[in-house]
Amino acid sequence: MKKRVKIAIWLILFLSTYSYSYGQMEKYDYKREIKGISEQWHSIILPNDLFGKASHDLADVRIYGITANQDTLEAPFILRVKTDKSTSKEIGFKTLNTSYNNKGSFFTFEIPKKESINQITLDFEQDNFYWLVTLEGSQNQREWFTITENYRITSIKNDLTDFQFTTLRFPNSSFRFFRIRIDSKEKPDLNFAHLSQFEKKDGEFRNYTIKTQEIIENKKVKQTEIKLELPTSVAVSHLKINISDKVNYYRPITIMFLSDSVKTEKGWKYNYSKLISGTLNSMEENEIKFKCTTLKNLKIIIYNQDNQALSIDSIQVKGYIHEVVARFTESANYYLSYGNKRAEKPRYDIERFTDKIPDTLKALELGIEQKNEKEKEESGVPLFENKNWLWLVMTVIIGLLGWFSLKMMRK
User: Fold this and answer.
1) Strand 77-81 versus strand 365-371 pairing type
2) Fold assignment, 87-201
3) In the CATH hierarchy, which fold is given to the domain comprising 205-320?
4) How confident is the model at residue 281 (pLDDT cuts 50, 70, 90)?
C-alpha cells in the first residue's frame, strides 16, 4: 500500500512540474535573440513590428534565457516609455495696478525677487472674446521693452464647446515689472493671473509612414472625415494636422481608432473607439497628444458647422519610443519573447529599486523575429491540453489517496 501512495504522490508532482515547464518560452508565439550582452544592466529598444503581435498593454513581453544545461531563466526588466518631461515653477508676484483708457486695458505685475519667467496664464470673468495682447518688461517702470505683441487670446463658450486659449508663452525674461496691454473696447475683468517658469524636455519619438489617406467631405452633416491607414500596428501617441488655410479658424475635432471588425452578410462592419476630442485652431500648432495606443487605422472627424471645410496640407503620426531595462545575472542565450494574449503583467523586485539602475546603459541589438514551433508540444502532451482532463486525473488521485487513508484507519 505504501508503494501505491508513493505512486499517487509522484503523479501529483509530475502534473505540477508539467504545468510549470509548459509555462515558459514556448507559450509565446514569437522570440528574438538578444545580442551583445556584456554588462549586468542593458537597455533594449522595442521594434515597431512587435506591437501588432504583443498584447495592447505589452503585458506579455518577457526575457527568457536558456543555459548550457538547457535550464530556463527569466531575466527581470522594467518597461520605460520615453515621454515628455515637464516642470512648472510658480513665481510669486503682486499686482500693482490695473487701468483702462482708449488704448486698452493695462495690468502691471511686480516680482519682488529676481526671477526668470516664460509663461503667464490669465483667467477672465468674460466668455466669448478675441483680444490682442502686448507684453512688456521693465526694471524701473520708466523704460519698457516689448517681449511679445499682437499675441492672440480667446474664449469660446456655447452649447457645443467650451474652449479657452489665454496663456502667454514667450522666451525666458527677467524683469522686475511686467505689463500686459489688452487691445479691446470692452474692459476685461481679470479674475487671476499665474506667472511661472515652464521647462519641457521633449520625449523620443518615432515618425510613422502613412500607407493610405482618404479625405471625405460630408456636406450633409457638415463634417470632414479623414481615414488613415499605417503599414502595421504601432504604438501611437501624437497626431499633428497641418492646415494650409491662412484665415483664423476654430473647429471641434474627434480622433478614433479601429478597435474591431466583424464580417456580416452585408460585408465588413468596422467599430471605432474614441481616443480624444479637442480643437483645431489657428492660434497654436495643431499637435494633439493622447494615451499611447497600439493601432493601425485612424479616423479623424472635423466638425465644420457652417464654415467652409479646411484645407488639409499634411498629417503626421508619431509615437513614443518604448524600451526595456533588463538585468542579466547568469550566462545564457537570452531571447525577447512576446505574443501571448493570456499572459499577465510580470512583477519583479527591481521595480522597487530603480535607484540602483545605472544612469548610462548600453543598448542591445535584437535578432530577426522567429516563430516558436509548438507542434512538438501538441503531439507530446495531447491528453493534458484540455484542463478538464487535468481536473479529472487530479480528482481520481485525490480519491485514491482518501480511499487508502480510510483503509488504513479501519485496520
Assistant:
1) unpaired
2) Jelly Rolls (2.60.120)
3) Jelly Rolls (2.60.120)
4) very high
